[in-house]
Structure formats: structure tokens, C-alpha cells
Amino acid sequence: MPTTTTRVPSTDLSQTQDFIQGVRARVGTVVVGQDVVVERLLIALFSGGHILLQGVPGLAKTLLVSALSKSIDLGFARVQFTIDLLPSDILGAEVLDQRTNEFRVRKGPIFTNLLLADEINRAAPKVQGALLEAMQERKVTIGNENFRLPAPFLVIATQNPVEQAGTFELPEAQLDRFMLVHRLEYPSRDEEREILARNAALGVKRQDKGAVVQTEFDVLDQKPVGSTEEIVAAMEAVNSIHVSETFVDHVVELVNRTRVHPDVELGCSPRAGISLIKASRARALMHRRAYVIPEDLYALAEDAMLHRMRLKYGAVAEGRTSKHVLADILRSMGGSAATPAGA
Amino acid sequence: MNCRGVLRAWALAALCSGLQAQDSSTVGMPARLRDLVLPGTELEVVNGDSRAPVALRIVAARPHGDGFRYELEYWGLDPGAHDLRPYLRRKDGTSTADLPAIAVQVNSVLAEPGLVAPHDPAPNVVPGFGGYRTWMVAGGVAWAVGLIALLAAGRKRHGVLRAAPQRPRTLAEHLRPLVERAMRGELSREERSQLELSLVAYWRRRLALDERRPTEMLSELRRHAEAGPLLQSLEDWLHRPEPARDVDLQRLLAPYRDLPAEVLETAELESATGGAR
Questions:
Q1: Does B96 reach chain A within 8 Å, measured CB to CB?
Q2: What CATH number did the domain enclosing A112 receive?
Q3: Which pTM does this prediction carry?
Q4: Do the chains contact at B204 and A331, CB–CB below 8 Å?
Q5: Which of A3, A252, A331 is best to mutate for the B interface (most B CBs within 10 A)?
Q6: Buried b (16+ CB within 10 A) or exposed e, A156-179
Q7: Tell me, what CATH number does A246's domain have?
Q8: CATH T-level assignment (fold) for domain B3-107
Q9: Is A22 in the same domain as A145?
Q10: Which of A211, A240, A269 is the last residue of a domain?
Q11: pLDDT of B140-156, one tens digit each?
């Protein structure tokens, strides 16, 4: 059973929860809906994981990440992944300083707190590999020198699930590095109405001698509602969330069922269970609880497990998806359909 | 004798002289009859029998007075004297009765007795039991017996399987012993997990929430008058590090102690679980 680390007093938990609410409210001023995505981003941030967002263009992925970084006073960098991107474009490189005639290190955009890797599947595998290695080790080697990445360090990668021409699909081993893979959905009708109304009210901004049409990025309040210290406090608070033996058994049962399901060729690795528990703790904190409950497991199962399952060819040919199979597994939890009577 | 008679006499003389000069060959070897003048319309070779003793072809044919002058090539395949007339016919289909005999001699170069034909093989008697028909009948009978045996074995096995079906345990059957053990305080760690998940599954089926997303399903259960307090009590008992209140397991689990086996396998859930209220 995982033992809880240093218990954070409930007053501190309350402060952390207020901080989280403040961040969510701030992001909500520029991003309509997408509460679940904001929650997942904060879960990844507080539990030290990375997150891949899958969604069609135009769902405010970039705006969301930008709003989050400005809300918490974090460094933010965005890299648009393309086919001709090189590892040094992200990590940095040694350049010759002509004044001193010596090589000096020019750090790449990865040296930030929040890195948005936009359309990660458009870059060549060597670039993806370099980024994913840095994500895991949290350090970068440039020349002969190792550089530790700033803390906290969160990679938010995006991927368009529909345009696959000219892309390099992330293999399972690399997808496994992402703690969560969240699939964005279209906003509801009410949310969409609100988006259109807000956009129509943006107006024009004077700039130099001319003017430019304002975007949602222009209305982001630059003053952060939280500091890095509060993030550290939130990370400590996540670690203080109690995980019961029963919950661990739920996770073990769920992960094991993915390994014996007849449609699954490759079930979830232990890393899926680890991610589930970490993410559940963060979710519990965000829902003002000091302990995890089955709701956390059910809520995060898709994001933590779908990308770690590979279906058999026959199941795919029949039109089954990992989502269908996981839904089956979740429905079968607690049942014993396969157990013979009297067993 | 008029001019035509002179020509005919000359032609016959030429024919006789030509035949005398080229009318012999050996078996299988080609020989030619040149400048052979034959009266009447043009001749062609009859496409005849491949077993004929002579094979013939016309190498050249040129008009010559009332007839044609031919160059013939022949292969004698059987030794002896042969007449080439039967191998020729008129192109216009008229009779060849007016043709003179075209005699050739084919000699054998083999020593006596010449070509020896092989003896006809004597028919052998096939030894063994029966003939083809007997074996076919025997094979058919064996196949039919095998098929009947296989069908009989399959029916017997199917009958055995029907006699002892491996019926999967229903959710109620799965839940009942867990509840019993929980009430006696004998639940293992793993069984506690199973109990909670089974109770969630029970209420999910009872309220027909199978098609809902898991989070929506749990929210619905939380709002339900009976399932909500149950989940809250389970949460206090199983997940809360320091329970805010004591959980009375006897009272909490009593409604689930005697659930009929079919209770969650039928559509009439509400009526069947009236005792659980």
C-alpha cells in the first residue's frame, strides 16, 4: 500500500484548494467550458506528469495553456512541431561566440515551466524522441554538459486525431511517457454561444499608429493569481492525499482486466496504475477531499489507460476501439460474469 | 501425225526417261522426280493418311503445253514399288484417270528380313482381392461408418454439456457471500474492494445506468435516495483515513444479504429488490 508522505494540515489543504479554484476561475475568464481539460492540466502539473491533448483544431488548446501559464506565474514556451524541426531547435545547441572565439550554450525553448508542443506528431521521430527523453529525465545534454530543466516542468503536447497525412504517430512506448492523454470534445451549445458572444465583443486594439483586431490572448490578465510556491504547496498537498488499500485494489483489478480482455493484445503496464493513483490524488485535492474514492478512478481511467492499450487486429477489424473495450471493462468491474457458479 | 500427237509422244518419252532416272530411293530418304510432265489441269497433293507408305510434296509446277511440268519430292516409308498417282488430285476437282502411272521404287537398306515389328505384349492378370469396384464400395462403406461414429460422438458430448452447464455466477450470487463475510467481519482486503465494486455494479444495473459514462453513473448514484447514502458509508468505511462516523455494517449491508440469484439478471429490477428497501 502506498504510504502517504508528510501530512499537510487541513488548513494548508484549504489554502491550496482556494489557489486551485482561483486558477480555474482565472482560466475560465478567457476559456469557456473545458473545465475538465483545465482540471486535467492541473492534475498533470501537480502530480509531475505530462499530458497529451488530442483534439481537432480550434478547441482553444493553445489559449488554454497560455491562460494557465499566465495564471500561475510560470514560464511558458510554445513550439510548433513541423517535419523539418531538429532536436537542437527544442533542446538548444552550442554556438560559436565570435567575440570570445569560444563555444557557448544557447538553451532551447524546453527550458521553461510549461512547454506547449503543438502538433507533436508532425515532427520526425528523432525530435519526438529527444523531447520525450527530456520529459522523462528532466534534464538535457547539450555538447558535453548536462542541464537540469526548471521545476516544475510540464509538457503539454497536442495532436490532431484526424489529419494523419505527413505525420509520425507516437509509438506506444513514447505515449506511455504521458501520464494522461485527454481527448477534447466540442463545447456544448450553451458554451458555444458564450464563445461567440465573447469573441464578438473583443473589439479593436490601438497599436503604434494603427490598430489590430483583439483576440482572446489580448484579454488575458497578466497578473498571476498564484505563485510557484503555491504550486509547490499543491504538489505537497497531492502527496498527502490518502490512498486506501481498497482503492489500490480497485486499480490493480482494473489494470489486470485490461490484460485478460479477449479484445486486448497489449494491456496496461504498471505505469498505468501508478499514473492512475497519482492523478486520482490530484483530482481528490481539486475536489476538496483528503482521500481518493472510486469516482477518481472512473473519471481518470480513460485518460490514464486508453493510450496504454493496444487492441487485437480482429477487434479493430470489427470496429472496436480502446474506448469501447475500456467501457466494457469498467462496466464489468464488480461483476463476475466469467466466474463459474460455485467457484 | 499432227503436231499435238508429236507433242504427246515427246512428253511420254520424256516421262519414261525421267521415271527411269529418278524412280528409286531408300526408306526414309527423300528423292525427287524432276521435269515430270503430266497432262491435264494442275495437280495438288492429297492431304492423306499419315500412315501412307509414301509421303509426297510438289516442289514446283509450271505450265507445259496442255499439261504441267512438275518437280515432285517423295519419301518412301515402306519398301517396295509404289505408284504416286493416288497421292495427287486436280485442283479443279476433275478426274485424274488420264494420268499415267508414276511408279517409284523404295528399297530397304536393312539386311534380311528387313524391318522387324515388335511382338504385341501379352495381357497380364492383376493379382489381389477384388477389383476397382470392390475397393470403391469398401471405401464408401468405411467413410459412412466413420461419419456415423463422429455424429454419434458429437451428440453424446453435446448431451453431456447440456446436462452440466457452466452457468456464470450472477451478480447477486457474487455479492451475497461478500456481504455475509463483511457482516461477520471476515472480509479480506481484496474482498473489500470486490464488495464495493459489486455494490456499485448492483446499483448501476438496478437503475439501468449501464450506458452512462462512469462519472455520470456515479454522480447519479450519489444523488439517489438509497444508493447515495450507501456510497457515502462505503467511502467512510473503506477510503476515509479517519472516518467521521462509525459505519454500522450490519444495518448498511442487511438489504443485500438475501438477494435472489436472478435479481439483477432480469428487467424487473425494482420489484425484485423490494426487500432491499
A1: no
A2: 3.40.50.300
A3: 0.66
A4: yes
A5: A331
A6: bbbbbeeeeeebbebeeebbbbbb
A7: 1.10.8.80
A8: Immunoglobulin-like (2.60.40)
A9: yes
A10: A240
A11: 999 999 999 999 998 88
